[in-house]
Amino acid sequence: MPSHHELVGKTYGSMQDYYTRFPNHWAQVREYIRAPAAEMLGVMILVLFGDGVVCQVSLASNPKVTPAPAGDWLSVNTAWGIGAALGVWISAGVSGGHINPVVTVCAALFRGFPWKRVPVYIFSQVLGAYLAALIVYANYFHAIDIVEGKGIRTVPGTAGYFTPYPPPYMTAANCFFDEFICSFLLVITVWIVTDPKNGPTSIGMLAIAVYFVVVGIGASFGLQTGYMVNPARDLGPRLMTWTVGYGREVFNFRSQYWLWCTLLGPMAGGITATFMYDCLIYQGTDSIINKPCAAARQYLSAPSKKDDAATLTSATSAMDAV
In CATH, what class is 32-292? Predict the structure, then answer.
């Protein structure tokens, strides 16, 4: 809270506004952590629904766990879509609803998002994914023991319940390209629905749009790499599987598959989508593509000088008339 010296000279109205916003010390602390916390919670919700449904559907396919299946590919796509929509909904009004390092980096590269906030956002996103995956693992721990054997953890095996691993026929280039396409579709949709000159939308409608694009990507491109599209949603659960006993193979699989497919693939797709949208459609001045050139800056500053001169001339004429 402000000291006595800091309060001196403050008007009643300004102090009322201050104490309304910060009624106690925790409110002051919360002001600094709200955006990172919103990103963390947004990704937590995404991964809780996503990894939760994958575990349920996969484990229920084993008759030792349950005699009847509990979901299918449509269940997986729908739950991931719901998780993404709710994650955006809870965070959009506070942090912008990135819940994805690709969106954060693209916003910094093209839209003026402060670079100093990028590491904080990404750390929060990965932490949220890690905690969510840990919660899901704790919930399905005994069912995983039934499937693999008590204390046995294999890669891909049940590690694939938390973060996808590609099938053997997929080449490295194919994996990269698959994730490139998925991320391109997701990110360009985000920029479309948040463009104020392309039909401005509310946070609720943004969440619905994200739901539809995630379900659509999963239904169209989810077969081969599991439509990762989000490095945080891969790295967080991958770290979790490493810490609970799946070993270093979660990182060494297919010559660091996680690095060149689930990190670089989505990042390349998102950057390409942002560059194309800003070059071809977006007109906002916050984009680096639309920054005025030197000639434009000189011309745009000229009218104000002309207006000042015109005003001065009119005033002088009026005085002469009097």
Answer: mainly alpha
